[in-house]
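In the design runs reported in the main text, the only information available to the sequence generator was the tokenized backbone. The following block is the verbatim input for one such run; it is reproduced so that readers can re-run the procedure and compare outputs position by position.
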């Protein structure tokens, strides 16, 4: 069997939820498990996050699986319904619906007569993706509060820059002004806001990436934040090549040695979810020691520098990211974010839970 595996540490997932609780004491936690729990496995993550107050995701079929599997707490469809034909299923499974546009408001008119939904009214405070513009919110809220299919309303917005220098004040001020007189629950804080902006925690927080052991901040490591990596992608060295100065490695001869080198060939490639665009120098661990990738990432293989590791060769364990090497660092070297690495884990990679 090919030696590449992804190990999911469910104890680390539960630990990271406790970190959320420590930062957002008093707020309820809607743990974000969209995209198959960021590649970690939906049902597995739901079990590990049992102490959360609810789960948020995008896919209604995944929400139904959770309900039919016995999950009894709040489940929020973070983009709401995509078609009125989903109303009956959403009502049967008691799913909470984000309402972010006029089309979704009209869908509610087609709800079964007995259906009652908790809805989250999404307000566009500057992200300019989903949500009603501020001038429309009063009228939309009145429609929702009078609607036969609406049981309760929560106010919701999403921060565009909680992870960088611009921060949240420019959006939080607008939201606070609008919400001040309405005495409705609210949800604003993503992972970055959970960690950095306690004034935004209000009633519900919505952590995502921090639950999976990665940092939302480019300048602050996950370890510094007290987070533990949940996914470790690991493999082994399949072959070793001894090359001379002037020899090249891999497709396109993208790396050329300037001295004699030992090259390790590792069972992992872009068909497994490793980023194809990762350049020479992207870090990885060989037997716990840091080294670098060399040349282009191929579909099934990548190459690494073993020149300073004469005792290591075929069969030596390799960590691509996870325990000992944050996915954040690998992602930064590849010009992307850890979200993409985790979500891109390919179905062909065996997953081990511990």
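Verbatim output:
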């Amino acid at each position: 069997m090919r030696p590449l595996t992804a190990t999911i540490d469910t104890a680390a997932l539960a630990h990271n939820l406790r970190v959320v609780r420590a930062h957002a004491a008093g707020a309820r936690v809607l743990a974000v498990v969209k995209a198959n729990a960021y590649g970690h496995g939906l049902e597995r993550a739901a079990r590990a996050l049992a102490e959360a107050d609810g789960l948020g995701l995008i896919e209604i079929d995944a929400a139904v699986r959770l309900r039919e599997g016995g999950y009894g707490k709040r489940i929020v469809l973070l983009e709401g319904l995509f078609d009125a034909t989903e109303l009956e299923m959403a009502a049967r499974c008691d799913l909470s619906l984000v309402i972010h546009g006029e089309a979704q408001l009209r869908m509610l008119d087609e709800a079964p007569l007995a259906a009652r939904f908790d809805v989250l009214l999404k307000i566009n405070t500057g992200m300019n993706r989903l949500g009603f513009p501020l001038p429309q919110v009063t009228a939309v809220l009145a429609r929702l509060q009078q609607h036969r299919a609406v049981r309760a309303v929560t106010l919701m917005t999403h921060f565009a820059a909680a992870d960088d220098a611009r921060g949240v004040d420019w959006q939080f001020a607008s939201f606070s002004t609008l919400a001040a007189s309405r005495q409705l629950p609210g949800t604003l804080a993503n992972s970055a806001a959970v960690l950095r902006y306690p004034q935004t925690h209000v009633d519900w927080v919505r952590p995502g990436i921090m639950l999976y052991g990665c940092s939302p901040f480019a300048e602050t490591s996950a370890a510094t934040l007290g987070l533990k990596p949940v996914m470790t992608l690991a493999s082994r060295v399949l072959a070793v090549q001894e090359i001379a100065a002037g020899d090249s490695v891999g497709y396109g001869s993208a790396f050329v040695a300037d001295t004699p080198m030992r090259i390790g060939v590792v069972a992992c490639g872009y068909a497994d979810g490793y980023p194809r665009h990762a350049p020479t120098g992207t870090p990885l661990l060989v037997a716990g020691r840091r080294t670098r990738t060399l040349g282009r990432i191929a579909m099934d293989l990548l190459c690494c520098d073993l020149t300073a590791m004469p005792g290591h060769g075929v069969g030596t364990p390799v960590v691509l990211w996870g325990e000992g090497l944050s996915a954040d660092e690998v992602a930064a070297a590849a010009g992307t974010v850890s979200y993409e690495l985790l979500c891109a884990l390919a179905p062909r990679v065996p997953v081990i839970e511990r």
